[in-house]
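ping. complex inputs:
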Amino acid sequence: MGALIRWLVAIVLACVAGIGSALWMTGWTSLPPLVGLSTIDINDWTSDPAIGSETANPYMRAYIARRGLLGLRREEATYYLRTVDDGGQPLRENCAYVIEGETPDARWWSVTLYAGDNYLVENEDDAHSIDMTRAIIGADGFWRATIQATDPGDGSFWVSSRNAGQFDLLLRLYNAGDAVLETPETALTTPDILLLGCQDGGAQ
Amino acid sequence: MIRFLIAFLAIALSSHAIAVWYLPRLAMNTAMARMEAIGAQANTIAHIPPTDETSRRVVRPSPDLLYSICLLDLADGPVRIRAADWGGYLSLSLFAANTDNVFARNDNDVDGDIDVMVANSGDVDVLLGSTRGIAIIRRLVTDPDALARADEIRRNNDMCEPL
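pong. complex structure:
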């Protein structure tokens, strides 16, 4: 009887270890995942060409299923995720940022703000994203938007982080040019995210 | 003791591999169940309302895209899908039960509508690789006029039905 119980406990523990490690490694827990979008890293914008692809390895497929289900294959769209500002600090609701970038070689692009639960932030500001059709290109060739919890009211394009807590930004590139697809490290200039300040005074 | 450790490792590795294999399928099944919960039916086109902060059926939806979906069930044979041309960005993509995007085509690839026949076997345009899956039609709509036009066209002309 004692041996049987020991075996049952061992089997349960083995299953917990096996399933738990799978959940952790593929980002299905609240802990930082072992697997991530890290094949391509351009100034902290990370992506993986295997998104949506039949060549994706099982870990990447499980990771994407949790964080980017129904993502398109790279020929149609590529996705770059950014979780930190240019200073390397996590993006937070109580801070204000300016995101600025050049126009990428793609049929259409957008940058969308998502909360930690991977959905649009629960606010009614109707300011979840900036995209190619609404961005205004300045004389210097850059587009800009302010990311913060309240409308800056200064005429700048606003992306709202109200109720977001810690958040991330997803850059979508639809029908990107061949060079962007093949050699993104040199062909793609990703947007910068400049910290303006934080309400708690933690960063300036 | 060694036999005990070997058994522990074998079970842990096996359950790990099964979990990694199953998680994408679980995510797809969950997404499909959520879509069914709002009225989507197999092999029938369903037009999703414009994306906003209440859209919580699939992670990371784009607020700039208008989605129509079809839950594919190919158990009884091929299904025909038509994404109607509306003069702006349009794509049709097909996802197998393991989340693979096995097919994607946009309005630049074809003249007029995107029209395909999908099945799990046989001589068709697309082999899905699984009995169940999801078809998604995306249209880029970033202003109210485009939204109204795209919505009218999709409701009148998109299609998903068994042959």
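The beta strands of chain B are 46-47, 65-73, 79-83, 90-96, 101-106, 114-119, 126-127, 132-140, 159-162.
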